[in-house]
Amino acid sequence: MPASRFSDRTVGIFAAVVTVVVWTAFIVVARASASRSLAPMDIAFARICGASLVLMPWGAWLVMRARAEGRDAPGSFFGLSPLGFRLTASAGVFGGLAYALLAYTGFFFAPASHASVLLPGSLPLWTTLLAAVVLHDRVTPLRALGLGLIVLGDLFVGGASLLHALDGGELWKGDLLFMGAAFCWACYSIIVRRHGLDAVRATIAITVFAFMTFVPTYAVLAAAGAVTSRLATAPPGEIAFQLLFQGIGSVVVSGIAFTRMVQYFGPVRTTMITALVPGLSALAAVIFLGEPLYWNLLAGLLLVTAGILFGVQRSRAMPAVAPAGVAVAGGRLDG
C-alpha cells in the first residue's frame, strides 16, 4: 500500500484551518445573504438541496454495501438514510430542519456579531444542561464556571435587546432565534450521543430527512403562494452559490474537516481551537459587513470564549456534535 502523501499532522492542521474558516464564513455569509434576494426558508431550501446532492447518494451506497455484505442495515426513507426511521426522524427534526430554519431566520433580524456569540457560544451551555437532565451527566465545578461565563456573555449581548422588546425593535427576535437554533443542535447532539451514532451516518440521515420532508412541502406551499419564496426571481448565480456554500461547504466539507480535526487533535484541543470562531466571525462582520463592535458585544464575546475554554479544562469527556455550518459532524464539546 503506498504511503500517504501527507502526514497526519499536516492533515489535522489543514482540517482545523478549513473548519474554522468555514464556520466563520457561515456566520458572515448568512448575514450578508439576508440583505440580498432570498428569503430565510429559501436559503434553508438551498442548503438542504446542496447537501443532498452529495449525501443522499452516499447514504444509498452505505445501505447497499451493508446489505450486499450481509450486515444488518436498518436503512430507511427508501434506502437513502443509513439509520432507522425513528432515529432519522428524531435527529432530522432537530439537526436537519429546526436548526437551519431558526438560524437563517435569525440573520434577518440580528447582525452577525450577535450570531458570533449566541450560536457557537450557547451550544456548550445547552448541550451540558441537556446532558445533565437527559443523560445524568455530572456538571463539574470548573464546567459550571465556564457555563456561568457563557450565560453572562449571552446576557451582555442579548440582554439589552430583550429589555427593549416592547419599544418596537426586532433585534431581540434574532437573538432568541439564535439561542433556539443552538438549543435544537444541542438536542441533536444528545440524540447522537445517546444512541452512539456515527458522525457521517448521522449527518446523512438528517439531510435525507430534511430533503424528503421539507423540500417537497416547501415547494408545494411556495408554488401555491402560501409562503413567501423568492427562488423564482432570485439571480441563478445567487442560488448556485447558496447550494455550494451552505449545502456542500457548510454541511459536507466542514463536517468531514471537523471529524478529521477531532481525530488528530482530540476533543479538548478541538474545542479550544473552535473557540476562535466567535472572535473571528465578529471581527469579520466588522471588516466585511461594516457592523459596529460595541463594548457590550466585545465583553460578551470575551466572556463566551473564556467560558468555552474553561468548560473543556480537566472535565470528563462528553461527546457531542458540531452544528452544520457552525458545525456539522461528530465530535465532542468537552473532554
**Portion of residues within helices:** over 70%
Order of helices and strands: HHHHHHHHHHEE
Beta-strand segment tally: 2
> Count of DSSP helices?
10
Report the major sheet: 2 strands, antiparallel
Structure class: mainly alpha
Overall shape: it is: globular
Q: pLDDT average, as an integer? A: 84
Total count of domains: 1
Distance between the termini: 34 Å
Quote the beta fraction: under 5%
Low-confidence stretches: 315-320, 327-335
Global Rg = 19 Å
**Widest sheet: strand order?**
1-2
Give an overview in words.
The chain is mainly α. The protein has one domain (8-334). It contains ten helices and two strands, in the order H-H-H-H-H-H-H-H-H-H-E-E. Strands 1-2 form a two-stranded antiparallel ribbon. A hairpin with a 6-residue loop joins strand 1 (318-322) and strand 2 (329-334). Helix 2 runs antiparallel to helix 3 (85-106) and helix 2 (40-68) crosses helix 7 (199-224). Mean pLDDT is 84; it is low at 315-320 and 327-335.
Write the layout of secondary structure elements.
Blueprint: H1 8-33, H2 40-68, H3 85-106, H4 112-134, H5 141-163, H6 171-195, H7 199-224, H8 236-274, H9 276-289, H10 295-311, E1 318-322, E2 329-334
Antiparallel strand pairs: 1-2
Helix pairs in contact: 1-8, 1-9, 2-3, 2-7, 2-8, 3-6, 3-7, 4-5, 4-6, 4-9, 4-10, 5-6, 5-10, 9-10
